From TrEMBL:
<dbReference type="GO" id="GO:0016787">
    <property type="term" value="F:hydrolase activity"/>
</dbReference>
<keyword id="KW-0378">Hydrolase</keyword>
<protein>
    <submittedName>
        <fullName>Acyl-CoA thioester hydrolase</fullName>
    </submittedName>
</protein>
<dbReference type="InterPro" id="IPR029069">
    <property type="entry name" value="HotDog_dom_sf"/>
</dbReference>
<dbReference type="Pfam" id="PF13279">
    <property type="entry name" value="4HBT_2"/>
</dbReference>
C-alpha cells in the first residue's frame, strides 16, 4: 500500500509551473456546499486544456478534432486533504511526472491559498480516436511535455520531481 502523500504548500511548487485559477461554483458542490469529488476531475481536465494552449502551444481541441488524437485518462486517483467549499478560489497546478511511449503521467495539485486541498494522480493515454487504439505520443506533444517538465523541475523539499 502506498503512503498517503503529505500536503505541499503552494509556494513549494515550482515557480515555473503553470497555474490555472478556478472558482468553486454552486453546481460543483453537494448539498453541504463541499465540492462533489468527481467535479475535481472536471476542473482538472479544464486546467489541462488550458495548459495545452497557454504553455505547451498545442491546440487541445484541434488535437482531438482535426488530428483525431485522444488524450483520455486511463488512470485517475485522488488524495483529498481538505474540503473545497462553494465560493473558494482555487489554483490547479499540473506537473508532468513521466512521459512514456503512448502515455504521460501528471500530478495535479489543487490549492486554496497555500493549503493543498487535493492531489490528483492522472495517467493519460494517447489514442487514435477513429480506431480507438493506442498510438505513440505525437512528437510535438512529447517535446512540449518534456520541455514543460524540464522548465518546472522538482517540487521544493522532495527528492523526486512531482
Amino acid at each position: 500500500m502506498t503512503a498517503r502523500p503529505s500536503p505541499i504548500p503552494a509556494s513549494h511548487l515550482p515557480a515555473a509551473a503553470y497555474r490555472a485559477a478556478a472558482r468553486v461554483r454552486f453546481g460543483d458542490c453537494d448539498p453541504a456546499g463541499i465540492v462533489f469529488f468527481p467535479n475535481w476531475f472536471v476542473l482538472a481536465n479544464a486546467a489541462m486544456e488550458d495548459l495545452f494552449r497557454e504553455r505547451l502551444g498545442i491546440d487541445f481541441h484541434q488535437l482531438h478534432g482535426k488530428r483525431g488524437i485522444g488524450t483520455g485518462f486511463v488512470h485517475a486517483a485522488a488524495t483529498f486533504m481538505r474540503p473545497g467549499m462553494m465560493g473558494d478560489e482555487v489554483m490547479l497546478t499540473p506537473l508532468i511526472r513521466r512521459v512514456g511511449g503512448a502515455s504521460y503521467a501528471i500530478d495535479l495539485h489543487i490549492h486554496r491559498g497555500e493549503e493543498e486541498l487535493a492531489r490528483l494522480d492522472l495517467v493519460t493515454a494517447t489514442t487514435h480516436l477513429a480506431s480507438r487504439t493506442s498510438v505513440p505520443v505525437p512528437p510535438d506533444l512529447r517535446a512540449a511535455l518534456l520541455r514543460y517538465q524540464s522548465e518546472c523541475g522538482p517540487v521544493a523539499g522532495q527528492e523526486n520531481p512531482a
